[in-house]
Design brief:
By secondary structure, the protein is mostly helical. The chain has helices at residues 11-27, 29-38, 44-58, 66-80, 83-96, 100-113, 116-132.
Length: 143
């Protein structure tokens, strides 16, 4: 008799699978594949916690749309000054449906409730990103 090395599908495993699917749907396969490739024994428990808490329990919820969740996430990351994560989630707007106009509104909100310097830096990063992918942000006419 041979004992199978197959992992049984427990609720925790199913939750992890759901979280990974959501993570891929928001951040894209390339990002997730790179993150998985760079995972070590040292940070694996942290990565698993993120998949379980953020991607399975929060991002997989249908209580609000991915677009709305994306906008909330961008505002919180900007308010906290978490610029690497902000940029990552800015790129994810291509999958979540948040448009440049949405991001502008998020950053205006950040300016009022979290401070002008945070919003100013968020605008800089957003403009750099949008220009890098060819989004026409429009030019103001000289008066």
């Amino acid at each position: 008799m041979t004992v199978s090395n197959r992992v049984p599908r427990t609720p925790a495993t199913q939750r992890h699978d759901e979280g990974m699917a959501t993570r891929r749907g928001v951040l894209g396969n390339d990002h997730v594949d790179r993150a998985e490739k760079n995972k070590t024994i040292f940070d694996a428990p942290f990565q698993d916690m993120i998949v379980d808490a953020a991607w399975s329990r929060v991002w997989s919820s249908d209580a609000i749309t991915r677009r709305e969740r994306s906008m909330l996430t961008l505002s919180l990351l900007a308010a906290g000054g978490h610029w690497d994560e902000f940029t990552m989630h800015l790129r994810a707007t291509a999958q979540t449906g948040a448009e440049p106009e949405d991001v502008r509104e998020v950053l205006l909100h950040v300016a009022i409730y979290a401070g002008v310097p945070a919003a100013n830096h968020g605008f800089k990063l957003a403009k750099d990103y949008y220009r890098s992918i060819g989004v026409d942000l429009g030019e103001l006419e000289s008066v």
